[in-house]
Design brief:
Radius of gyration: 23 Å
CATH superfamily of the largest domain: Alanine racemase
Helix content: 25-40%
Strand content: 15-25%
Distance between the termini: 82 Å
Number of helices: 13
Low-confidence stretches: none
Largest sheet: 9 strands, mixed
Bound molecules: pyridoxal-5'-phosphate
Mean pLDDT: 94
Number of domains: 2
């Protein structure tokens, strides 16, 4: 009896602790049903990631704004809202998508980057929270709204961090944010226009595995906090790293949660002020929930390599080429075949290499190859290059796969074109 109870208990703990990856058989079924190339997102995995954050940051009561730009399918946004997460937008259209998904303005944050003032005015009109990233726009905002509409400012903390230079946004040559050394000018704008700055924002980059980088960011912001009498919120952006390879170092969310709680407690002791902490995770929430399935069109042997050419390319999944990103590939059709070495390449008239010299179970033409960690910045960065169709997207929820975007059809290629000749 007790042994049964222990087993039941362990089973409950285990099944709560880990959402299982989608099985090979299930993914093959989806590929056969909806065709390839195909993006598949696992809803419960997104929820699990969100709950991990809530748990890890309980001590500081952090709020999380999903960086919608990672994956904006309206169903994903609706799901994110359903599980209680807020949303961070990188364009006014993302704000509109968020509103369409049912988020209320107080659940929406708009973090701008070198945008026209008209777009900031539009965001203000919708009543969402705004992070302004230039002194000129802050000044315009102050002149127009004075003290009546609190805003955040995005600062460039001059910290080098992130998986590679392309996704590193806080360093001293970065275009993002107001350079920290120009804080005097911000203070002058506040004096001149009475603009109410209630939040300080930084986003130092993507794939930050080092908790110390976040700690450094907090330190930088706390150092200048005294300049902002209306300050209520510290927004530390996104950039939590997930594993792209087995066993790869990731952001220690639990330790970071603890560290943040300590730092904010300490700040309160020192200043008597309790600040709120916000984060904007993108990748952390949706990366691992995503699978990208392609089919092998052609095998080609040459003296130096065997090429496996799939029915997709940098038009659908650009991370390997754009960032040099590594993605685990699985041969769904022949998982136990003998290992051979392949260059997995695309069908686009570019050198679109997904993986070089990659050992994979023997590939045959027609096999299904699946890329892991395809949820973030996958479909979202896709295009119609080479006049190819964008892939379909499927959301798996409660064990059921729902088509949430149909594959393009020929008419989509001509949709906005005007035939004047
Ligand atoms: C892209 C972005 C994020 C999300 O970054 P991840 O690496 O996906 O977590 C958060 N905040 C801002 C302002 C961003 O531009």
């Amino acid at each position: 009896m007790t042994r049964v109870m222990v087993i039941l208990f362990l089973f409950t703990v285990y099944s709560q602790a880990m959402v299982q990856q989608l099985s090979r058989e299930f993914l093959i079924d989806l590929a056969n049903k909806f065709g390839t190339p195909l993006y598949v997102y696992h809803a419960e995995k997104i929820k699990e990631q969100y709950e991990r954050l809530l748990k890890a940051f309980k001590g500081s009561g952090a709020r999380f704004f999903y960086a919608g730009k990672a994956l904006t399918n309206i169903n994903v946004l609706k799901y994110i809202r359903e599980i209680g997460c807020q949303v961070d937008c990188s364009s006014i259209n993302e704000v509109l998508l968020a509103l369409r998904a049912g988020f209320t303005p107080d659940q929406i944050l708009y973090t701008s980057s070198n945008i026209a003032f008209a777009e900031i005015e539009a965001a203000q009109g919708y009543g969402v929270s705004i992070n302004i990233d230039s002194i000129s726009n802050l000044e315009k905002f102050g002149k127009k709204f004075g003290h009546s509409y609190p805003v955040g400012i995005r600062l460039r903390p001059n910290i080098m961090a992130g998986g590679n230079l392309k996704i590193s946004t806080g360093h001293q040559d970065s275009k993002f944010g107001i350079p920290l050394e120009q804080i005097d000018q911000v203070v002058r704008v506040m004096k001149d226009t009475r603009v109410c700055v209630n939040a300080l924002h930084i986003h130092t980059g993507s794939e930050i595995k080092d908790v110390e980088v976040f700690a450094k960011g907090i330190e930088v912001l706390f150092d200048i906090a005294g300049n902002f009498p209306d300050l209520e919120i510290i927004d530390l952006g996104g950039g939590f790293k997930v594993a792209y390879r087995e066993g790869e170092a990731v952001t220690d969310i639990e330790r970071l949660g603890q560290k943040v709680a300590e730092e904010f407690d300490m700040f309160e002791k020192k200043t008597g002020k309790r600040l709120k902490v916000w984060f904007e995770p993108g990748k952390f929430l949706v990366s691992e929930a995503g699978y990208f399935i392609t089919r092998v069109n052609v095998l080609k042997e040459s003296a130096t390599a065997v090429f496996a050419g799939v029915d997709s390319g940098l038009n659908h999944f650009i991370r390997p080429m754009f960032y040099g990103a590594y993605h685990i590939i699985e041969n769904l059709s022949n998982p136990h075949g003998p290992l051979r070495t392949y260059n997995v390449v695309g069908n686009i008239c570019e050198t679109d290499t997904f993986a070089e010299n990659r050992p994979l179970p023997q590939i045959n033409e027609g096999d299904l190859l699946m890329f892991r960690n395809a949820g973030a910045y996958g479909f979202e960065m896709s295009s119609n290059y080479n006049a190819r169709f964008k892939p379909a997207e499927v959301l798996v929820r409660g064990g059921e796969g729902y088509l949430i975007r149909r594959r393009d059809v020929f008419e989509d290629l001509l949709r906005n074109q005007l035939e004047v000749l």
